[in-house]
Amino acid sequence: METMLSAYVLMWPAAVFVIMTVIARGFAKDVREAREEGRDVI
After folding, report:
1. Helices (H), the chain
2. pLDDT for residue 1
3. What is the pLDDT of residues 2-37, one digit of tens each?
């Protein structure tokens, strides 16, 4: 039981890391494209 609880608790930081990585990569791509086109991101 303790192993399952530990896995459950440790799963959330890993999930957040993956989601934040996907968001950051998408944002970096948008910034790169905007810079190449000479326009603002926002």
Report:
1. 2-37
2. 85
3. 899 999 999 999 999 999 999 999 999 999 999 999
Q: How far is CA 36 from CA 11, 19, 23, 25, 39, in A?
A: 38, 26, 20, 17, 8
Q: How far is Cα 9 from Cα 3, in angstroms, rounded to an integer?
A: 10
Specify the amino acid at residue 8: Y
**Does the pLDDT at position 39 exceed 90?**
yes
Degrees, nearest 5: CA angle 24-27-28 = 85
Would the CA dihedral through 26, 29, 31, 33 be positive or negative?
negative
> End-to-end alpha-carbon separation of the chain, Å?
48
